[in-house]
Amino acid sequence: MKKLLLALSLSLVLFGCSPTEETETSSVLQESTAAVSSEAAETVSVSISLTDGGTIIAGSEKTLEVEAGTNLLDAMKDNYAIEEADGFITAIDGLAQVEETAETKAKYWLFDVNGEPSMVGAADVALQEGDVIVWNLTEM
User: Fold this and answer.
1) pTM
2) Model confidence over 70-81: pLDDT tens digits?
3) Which of 28, 37, 59, 89 is most deeply packed, by most CB within 10 A?
């Protein structure tokens, strides 16, 4: 009787747990797949160009595909040779800002986003689909 009871108990344990384990594994796999799909990065297309005193610098115009929300500073670092100091871009593709001297006026890199001067730094601009960024080496 004890052997029969033991055999019955083992059967219930072995067969009772098996479908649940498969269901749990399948459920975890489905959740993981859904999480990966929802985390797939959306890319956006943005246009960036450089000007010097309002004249477009030859070869500087680029259309970039970046993750939505990428900040402008990171996009610049990935696609242009930049130099920066204290969080400000001081040179792009070898074209550096100019400090004011007795002979020259100061020139600084400023940028517009969709035709409007930016009121924040490049690290604070989250790129969105269709953004048009124009960097201008501006005389002050």
Assistant:
1) 0.69
2) 999 999 999 999
3) 89
